[in-house]
Amino acid sequence: xxxxxxxxxxxxxxxxxxxxxxxxxxxxxxxxxxxxxxxxxxxxxxxxxxxxxxxxxxxxxxxxxxxxxxxxxxxxxxxxxxxxxxxxxxxxxxxxxxxxxxxxxxxxxxxxxxxxxxxxxxxxxxxxxxxxxxxxxxxxxxxxxxxxxxxxxxxxxxxxxxxxxxxxxxxxxxxxxxxxxxxxxxxxxxxxxxxxxxxxxxx
Length: 203
Description:
The protein is mainly alpha-helical. It is built from five helices and three strands; from the N terminus they run αααααβββ. The protein has a three-stranded antiparallel sheet, with helices on one face.
């Protein structure tokens, strides 16, 4: 009968079974921590992805932005240059080309008149006049060649006035007033502007 009281102590042994419930609670907390870490990592990854996409988008915008400005920059000076250049260029080129055309037209006219014989109906066909015609054509050719390097309006007017003066003296059968010497392959042409004498001589 002294051993019966041990039974209640044996019935109390189930109490130590309570500790297993503690690890289950700690396992939940570990799971929650892992889940939180995973969510944090996902948020970081998503944030990095958004940041990268924004950087790419912002980097593409400046690339497209300078292109219009680069195209707009040359267009402005080109318009300004076209507005500013034509007056000076057209003025110089027009004056040079105009006087050059006038001189060439006069050269062609007198060559045609001389070769056809029509010129000798206006002035006598003499050695003096033939020499004067040759000198006249050389003077005009010399002025035309000078226009290649460019002439201004004053020079163009001077050439035209000189051409008119030489033509008037030629038709008046007067000395042309200027000397000239042209060296050719086999001969030399000379003209005395004061006397009107000259002609071709062999080298």
